[in-house]
Design goal:
Blueprint: H1 11-20, H2 25-50, H3 55-62, H4 66-72, H5 82-91
Helix pairs in contact: 3-4
Length: 109
């Protein structure tokens, strides 16, 4: 099975990725999961702040604690649920959209 290799614009980032992630499928999977967690956290934060809401205000709108919103906006958190993401989307007058797209796989050399 071929593993996905990320391409970076920065030579330093590329070197770091190649050195510490490389072609190890387990490390690639872990890295991609961390990137996904960070993207979800960043998007929740951006939507909330664009709506002009504090974490406490958003929490109140969806019936949870501010600490939950804080946790969801933490890039290290990996417990995002579709149910909670849907509640956040609704509270921010957004629609949650999940898509499956073709994975780009590198061919072995």
């Amino acid at each position: 099975m071929a593993t996905k290799k990320r391409k970076f614009k920065s030579a330093a980032l590329q070197w770091t990725y190649d050195r510490y992630i490389g072609k190890d499928p387990k490390r690639v999977e872990e890295y991609e999961q961390e990137v996904l967690n960070a993207e979800i956290a960043r998007r929740i934060y951006e939507l909330r702040t664009k709506a002009g809401l504090s974490q406490r205000q958003l929490a109140k709108k969806i019936g949870t604690a501010a600490s939950t919103i804080c946790r969801l906006e933490d890039a290290d958190y990996d417990g995002h649920s579709l149910y909670m993401l849907k509640r956040i989307a609704e509270a921010l007058d957004k629609r949650l959209e999940i898509r499956f797209v073709q994975a780009k796989r590198l061919q072995p050399a």
